[in-house]
Amino acid sequence: MAEREDAVEVALRALRVRDRTAAELESRLAERGLDAAEREDALERLERAGYVDDGRFARLRAEQLAGRGSGDALIRHDLETRGVAGEHVDAALDTLEPERERAARIVARRGPGPKTARYLASRGFGEDALAVAVAWQD
Fold this sequence. Notes:
Elements (H helix, E strand, L loop, with lengths): L1 H16 L4 H10 L4 H13 L5 H14 L4 H10 L4 H10 L3 H12 L3 H9 L4 H9 L3
């Protein structure tokens, strides 16, 4: 019983700093030498209690990144790197303002042109959004 509590405590300490995905916590618990059964039990308990929710994490992280001027590709990459399942990634992206509208705001702030188009591409915006930066030049 003490080992299971240790796994939960390790996970809770990690969650005190910031919200984390189940995969991130699984990795942290594995690094601490906890066996698979302990890790699985701890994560199940934390999910039931609402401390770990990959869908919530994905929505909040996607909103945060979009608010910082990131495109869908960068957001998708970030979430997938953190171990978020594809259905949560897709659902999170669906809740965001369309990428083209986010790009238009950036173009309005930075001005149209190739430099802005390169900036958008580096921030993970797709071709449709990049067209906004080029179209405003006409």
